[in-house]
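Quick question, first post here. What does this chain look like in 3D?
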Amino acid sequence: MTTEQTPRSPVCPLSVGSPSDTTPYAHYARMDELLALQHPLSSAPTEPGFIVMSQVKELLFKLLHIEFGTARDQLADDLLDDALWTLRRAARVQQVLLVSWETFSVLSPVEFAGFRDVLGSASGFQSAGYRRLEFLLGNKDPAMAAPHRDTPGYDAVVGQLHEPSLYDAALALLARRGLLTPDDSTDRDVTLPYRCGAEVEEAWRSVYRDPVRHRDLHLLAEALMDTADQFARWRYTHLVTVQRMLGAKPGTGGTEGVVWLARISEHRFFPELWSVRSTL
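> Answer (accepted):
Ran it through. Tokens below.
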């Protein structure tokens, strides 16, 4: 370092400015507030665990939203290597999310019934965080924003509906690489699902048939498949877990319960990446 250079100021220790009634760790991560957010409404010993793990899943949804949003923006900026690294991180978060169902699956029907009544009409179906995640990945349906109307999360859900999805960004990259005709439409309704069809499948087929020439796009295709695969497993595990706890009873949020979950478990993100496999 020359004498003309000014040394960078050191980062202030976390303990500086921390309240005297907590630790720097608890202050940094707001642990005291976080751990005070569990308020069981029954005396059932299993209800605290249900609340804690429901909150854990919401935090994981938030983290995945950050990661997938970052990956989308990196793809839009042609930073494919960076996007692949981000999707690698997201895949680990998805694994934790999938394992989170294990804590619910060990609840017996009697144990769940011990506090189910206090849930009222509360249901994971009403999760604004999960809805934003679905929209970000490309599974867009304006009607799915309706359950969040008149709630603090409504604007964020609707805002996500009007943003390009991760798959939109991937397909735009394929177009810039010459594998798809550019979508120059200025009136495309971004609240509808991504561009789809035979041309999209053909673009992915070109990538898979020449993975050496399209090495980075091949890695992207498989990273997106990892994402879609983990979500398919998450939905199926959700279905089996609810079936184990509730049988054929209707869901607390007014859905058909297992029947409804069985139907949505058939959905696959990035469908052309699935269908192209039948043609290779």
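The mean pLDDT is 89.
The chain has 13 helices and no strands.
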